[in-house]
Amino acid sequence: MIPLKEAIAERHSLAEKMPFNQKMFRGELTSAEYASYLQSQLEIFSTIETHFQLPHPAFERSGLIQQDLDELGVEPKRTEAGKRYLEYLQRLSQEDANAHIYLNYLALLFGGQMMKSKVPGSGKMYEFEGIPELVASVRQIQKDSWAGQANMGLDFVIEILGELDKIHT
Ligand code: HEM
Question: Which CATH number characterizes residue 61's domain?
Fold first, then answer.
């Protein structure tokens, strides 16, 4: 079986190249745009944290994302793709949800760390204690058979990023 990282490489690259992410990376998102992004993150992370067990308690993100949103003080917009992703996540088994946990939490631990200094507000969502231990807790349970679910998650994320661009133009 193809290693998981390789199996998601094509869609990961597509996600990285989405104009909304590129704008974030260049530090050009407005507070209104970033608030809507945080709202879509809140939908993903609070759904996971309400319905499933995390590989490590320090992964918990919903409270921090809510604090980031409160700090911005902007009314966020919701995306249809975000709603579809949360409805999809709710119905998964813990085992299938683990692939989405891998996808969304490692996204914050890797690419996300480069974003902290580039987004409006203090970026508490990106603050983790003991990153190596957190990465190890995912690696311990990781399976190459998660590729299908992880790629499905990337499809949702790509749709969300496309919609965020549209609703803010
Ligand atoms: C501008 C956007 C992004 C950048 C710059 C970025 C960058 C990176 C980098 C540098 C790594 C580490 C690669 C390595 O091990 O050498 C990584 C890994 C990863 N990223 Fe991203 N990323 C972005 C978006 C995303 C998104 C949207 C997701 C999914 C929601 C995601 C999920 C992951 C995952 C799951 C890994 C770990 C792969 C593995 O080692 O198994 N990334 N990313």
Answer: 1.20.910.10
